Structure formats: structure tokens, C-alpha cells
Amino acid sequence: MVVGSVLVTGGTGYIGSFTALALLEADYKVVIVDNLYNSSKEVLNRIELICGKKPDFYEADVCDEAALDKIFAEHPDIDSVIHFGALKAVGESGEIPLEYYRVNVGGSISLLQSMTKHNVSNIVFSSSATVYGDATRFPNMIPIPEHCPIGPTNPYGRTKSTVEGIITDHIEAQRNNATKKGEAGGEKWNAALLRYFNPSGAHPSGIMGENPLGVPYNLLPLLAQVAIGKREKLLVFGGDYESKDGTAIRDYIHVLDLAQGHLVALNYLRTNTPGVKAWNLGSGRGSTVFEMIKAFNAVVGRELPYQVSPRRPGDVLDLTANPTLANQELNWKTKLTLEDACADLWKWTENNPEGYNQEPPKEFVEALKKEA
């Protein structure tokens, strides 16, 4: 039984594809829109292999409002959007900030305008912990709660905080406008702002994972590429932080847990109509870069080479979540560990060195068929 129809922007990307899988497994109908800038259509086949269902797919750009209008018109049953479509690299955002604003902010405005025209009233926004910036500038803000003041330190984070503000203004305006007109139904306009921390891992089946087309920007995929010989060594940005080993502290969350967080946030919007709510999706456990390297080395079974380099502009000491609000209100908490993420990522990378540009291992596909 289909429980609802959801448009997922950026749905062939890493987190978007795992969220599309979670939605299908929860009996939602899923429509994906993605311009394939940093992803592959092959992920649609992998989703189908795992859950037996395939999302509808449109190759389109989130900045193209006319294309979005057409998609909504063809799917009048869509009542919600989960919005991932964005550029996402902190370092790159400092090099090409205007492109980040064009895509991340401009695309979100196009999406909201099209949603409004087609009366699509729920949006789950894939935000980021980078909106908080350096939370150590305030006392008692590590781990970071949702009431920590926003203060991003790089263009990527500023695009995310800008979009959070745009969504908040839009949803509140839609509700207020309905009240002024004396119309019922203003409460149907809702948004979840999901500030999540460092996604990691892959599907335990070994046939679906992160598949960056260029250089990965995240620590674990870079380590995995070192392990299979695609990269000579890992660059560790900053060895002079005020942490126990001098490297930055991050909160790593398994992508399966993160996908579930998006699913339960959507369910919460549809059931409780709260207006605009922000939730942290994290484990509450901070790990240094060196601790992550050690954990991944243990899975691979050998020491991987690394080199400490200068800090990148905009990087901060500690991004560890306080996930209490999501634990309480969404009844969501992480179930998988850092060690699970490392093991699943290594299984995916070791057996799929070319990512989605190769056939999945036959024994993995057969194992899925036996489970079905």
C-alpha cells in the first residue's frame, strides 16, 4: 500500500539514493530528479535489486523551474519533497562561491516556487552541521544543540543557512496568508531542517555505496581509495587543533541511519504539522581524524599512508551533534556504529573498485535474492 508520493531532489547522489531506498521500503512512491552532475543512473538499478522497487527518474536540474513544473504536473499525487539537490564540498565552495549560491540557493528558490504552484506543502531539507560554524566560540555548546547560534565559516555552510532562512520565511508566510484570508488548511505547510553531521558507510549488501565521480571530499571514501591504490596517501587537513591528537573532531553517522532520519522526519511533518522544525541527526559521539584512520585501518588490516597538511579555510575544531531532540521527538537514534560504517564502506569499495561503472559482484546479488 502506497502511503504517499515524494519527490527527492538529488536522489541519485549518496544520501539521496539511500533515502529513496528507505522511502520505497516504507511503501512511499518515489520520484527522483537529478542532473547527474556527481552521480550515476545505475544507482536506480541497485535500489531495485535491494528492495524490488524502482523510483521514477527525471534527469533535470533543480534550478530549472519549468522542468520541475512539468514533473509536478505529471505527478499530481506528490505532496512532499525531500531536498538534497546541491553542491556540497566545503573546500570547493571557497573556490567557486557564486556557483554554490547559484545552485544551492537559486535551486532551492526554484523548487519552492514550483512546489507552491502545485500545492506541494511539505519539505524536508537536507541541511548541514556546517551552519553552526565554530560552536566552541560559545560555552557549553559541544555537543552542539539546535539552539546553538548559527554562524557558518565557509560559503557552503552559508548557502545552507540561507536556504534554511528562505524555507522558514516561506512556510511561515504560507501559513500566515491562509490565516489572513480566513482559509482552512494553512497548517499543511511544513518543513524539517535536518542538520546532519558526517555521513559514512555503504549498504551492507555490498552493492550500493558512495560513488563520487571526481575526487571525494569526505574522509572515509578518500581512505578507501588509498586502500585500493587509487590514491597514494590521505591528506589530513590540520594537525594543530586543540584535540587529544591535534586533528579535527567530527560526528560520523552511518548513511542507513541518516536515511531513516529523513524518513521519520517526513512522517513527523505529515502527522504532526509542526510548521518549521530543525533537528540534528548525529550520533553524539565525536571522533578525531586519527581515530577514524585507526578504525578504518583495522578493517582493511594494514596501516594506510597519510600526510598532515595545513588546515583548510573554514574548517572548525569540533562538529559533534547533540541529537537529544531527534531522539525524543522523532523517536530516532543511530543504531549503527563507526566500526559498522568502516566495514560496510570497505566491503563496497574492495568489491566495487569502479563503483557503479561495473557490474555488482554476482555472489552479492545472489545473496540479496535469497533474502527476498
Q: What are the defining features of this structure?
A:
41% helix; seven-stranded parallel sheet; 372 residues; globular; four-stranded mixed sheet; 12 helices; alpha/beta; Rossmann fold
CATH homologous superfamily annotation: NAD(P)-binding Rossmann-like Domain
Estimate the global geometry from the Cα principal axes.
globular
The percentage helix is: 40-55%
Give the end-to-end Cα distance, rounded to a whole number of Å: 18 Å
Order of helices and strands: EHEHEHEHHEHEEHEEHEEHEEHHH
Biggest sheet strand order reads 3-2-1-4-5-6-10
CATH topology: Rossmann fold
State the name of the first-level CATH class.
Alpha Beta
Number of strands: 13
Secondary-structure content class: alpha/beta
CATH architectural designation: 3-Layer(aba) Sandwich
Bin the strand percentage: 15-25%
Number of domain modules = 1
- Mean pLDDT over the residues: 95
Residue windows where pLDDT falls under 50 for at least 5 positions: none
Largest sheet: 7 strands, parallel
| Gyration radius from CA atoms, angstroms | 20 Å
Number of helices: 12
